[in-house]
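FIELD: query
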Amino acid sequence: MAAVLTPFLESDIHLSPPRAGQAVRPSSSVVSLLEERLPFTVRVVSNEQQLAKAVSIRHAAYARHLPDFAESLKRPERSDFSDDSVILLAESRLDGSPLGTMRIQTNRHEPLPLEQSVDLPGWLQNGGVLAEAVRLGVTEGVQGLLVKTVLFKAFFQFCERFGIDWMVIAGRSPLDRQYRRLMFRDVYPDLGPVPLRHAGNIPHRVMCFEVGTARTLPNAEQHSFYDFLFRTHHPDIELEAPALQTISAFMPIPVAGAVGRTSATPLQ
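FIELD: result
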C-alpha cells in the first residue's frame, strides 16, 4: 500500500500529558508542507493485546540473527512495565499485523540499559535527560526499512516534546552505519564497538544525538531526513495512550524473569 500525500499547512500532533516530573518543551513553530498517510500506524502500547504483538515482532527480529538470545524475548520483560519505559508498536492498517517495535527508556529514575555494560562519559551523563532506544525490531524487506524510519521519527518526537536532551542508541555492525546517516555520533570515538553483556556480548557502537540541535546543525535542511522529520505530518503516529504500567497488575502474559534493564540490539 503506497503512502498518500495531501496538502497540509500546520502540524497538529497532540501528546498526552507527561508523567509526574517530566517537563514538556514548547512546540516548534515549524510549518509542515505535507500530510503523509502511511500503510501502518505507530502507537504507544497500552494493553495486553498490543504488548503481545510487540513481543512477537521483537522475538522474530532477534531470532533471525541471535536465535539463542531470542529465546529470552518470547515473553514481556520487567522493563516493559517500568515508569521510565514507553513501548512503540507499528501495526499494519490492512490487517493489524505487527510490523515493528521499539522501547524507549529514559534515565529519569534509573540508569540507561547500556550503563550495565559501559560507563557513559561525564559530558553525556551531565548533559540532561537521556533516552535510549532498545529492543528495536522490524519486519524484513523494504517495508521494514520504512517502519524503522518512522519509529525513529516517533522516538525523536517523544524526546522533543517530553524534555529529553539526548537520544542514545547502540547498534551492531553494519546497522550502526544507518544511525550515522541519521546524524548520530559516537559516544566513544576512540574506543570503537563495545561488547554489551545483555546482548550476548556482541560488540555495539554506542551513539548519541542531541535533540535540541536537530534544526540547527550545519546544512540541517539539506539532510535527506529533514523534510520527513520536520516538514511532513504523519497522523498515523499516535503517541497518546495510558501508561502500560497501569495494566501490568492484570497482564495474563508471564513476564520474563531477568532482573533489571537489558541493552538494545537493533535488528532487522
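FIELD: remark
The chain has a mean pLDDT of 80.
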